[in-house]
Amino acid sequence: MRIAYLGYDVLISCLQALEESGCSVMKVFSFPTDDEFEFSRRVEDFARERNLPFTREAITLDEIHQLKEEGCEAIFCAGYPYRVPVDHSLPIVNVHPSLLPVGRGAWPMPVTILRGLRESGVTLHKMEAGFDTGDILLQEAFPVGPGDTLETMTGQLRIIGARLCREMAADFSRLWAAGQPQGEGEYWPCPQKSDYTILETTPPQETERILRAFFGFDCYLKTKEAEYRIVRGLFRPERHTLPFGAVRTRKDGRRIYAVQGGVIEIEANWKRVEA
Question: DSSP labels for 71-125?
């Protein structure tokens, strides 16, 4: 089938899976990324290598109509932040990182860890005007353990999302027709800075969850005198008499931050990897 794709590098596995399943990609839509935590270079390379149109501008209703006129049969969306105009003449499938109808919203994975939940999943659903409310097409759960981080959950999302996209592409018409209404759901607001800021009053268990929930992105340690930006921080329980927020540098160059009930250290041998 002929499709258009909306997304960025974090779920390029879905784009690759669709092509491997025989889909002919007509156009790739992405968005401006910060090139620090989010990237779109690989999806742009995918389009360039195949001489496909590529844009970082938000898709419009006119473009959806144009795609339909040019023979597009469906749009697949995976990690696309712009609001997509819904036109029921062209099926639009969204890859969502939670077990809908629970976990509607732009970034449910950190919330899963912050709430101490033990299960998450991936849902393919029909795009509707209401965020993440469309009929469920395919869904797969995965366990979330006490050692999981945003990064390990994202790894599951890549694998399962690609698998579900292959399944959807292989039997699109039947699965689309068999979509199941979600019913009542639960919307999770996108985390704000206060959700990933560690204070002197933050209990050790919450500090550990914050660091896991936003691992790979930035967290903040805020004292009365300063605010530290922490990326890929790990909580280590430890007895100490250091004042909150005290910073030490180990022989290997890693910084250690004193917090309630332990210390935060930066992952060893960390080098930024473009996802």
Answer: T--EEEEES--SPPPP-TTS-EEEEESS-TTEEESS-HHHHHHHTT-SEEEEEEE
The Cα–Cα gap between 143 and 200 comes to 32
How far apart, in whole angstroms, are the C-alpha atoms of residue 220 and residue 203? 15
The span from the CA of 221 to the CA of 255, in Å, is 13
- Residue listed under structure tokens 């990897």: 273
CA-CA distance, 42 to 46, in Å (whole number)? Answer: 6
Please state, in angstroms and rounded to a whole number, the distance separating the CA atoms of residues 153 and 155. Answer: 5
H/E stretch holding 194 reads none
- Cα–Cα distances (Å) from 132 to 10, 102, 105, 164, 268, in that order, read 19, 10, 7, 17, 38
* 227 in Cβ contact with 257 (< 8 Å): no
pLDDT range class, residue 271, cuts 50, 70, 90:
very low
Q: How far apart are CA 212 and CA 224, in angstroms?
A: 24
Angle at 37 between CA 63 and CA 100, to 5 degrees: 65
Give the whole-angstrom CA distance, residue 88 versus residue 146. 41
Integer Cα distance of 202 and 228 in angstroms: 15
Q: What DSSP string runs through 35-76?
A: SSS---HHHHHHHHHTT--EE-SPP-HHHHHHHHHTT--EEE
Which value, in Å, is the radius of gyration of the alpha carbons in the chain? Answer: 21
Per-residue pLDDT tens for 30-60? Answer: 999 999 999 999 999 999 999 999 999 999 9
Q: Is the pLDDT of residue 149 over 60?
A: yes
pLDDT(63) > 70: yes
